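Q: Sequence in, structure out?
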Amino acid sequence: MVENVFTKDVGDFMFKRMERSGTKAMHDPRYCELSRESDKIYAEIKSALPEELQQKLIELNDLHTGMLAIECEFDYRQGFSDAVKLIVQMLSL
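A: Exactly. Output:
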């Protein structure tokens, strides 16, 4: 029970940090430029497709967004784990 509470607390902490980090990234000029270019290309492709394929394009985009969110979560967890291991190693010197 205590382990589940600790795991939940660590998960909550990590998700809050990831959210804050994502918000910072969205204000980065490089991110903003890539986002504008991506939105423009997406709109061009979508408008060139028949209506039934436009919906498929939206579904595909949603799937990719979900996949990216999962990848970001794994990357963040790995970075967090690596940092803890590094701190433990440094303390044991």
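The longest helix spans residues 51-91.
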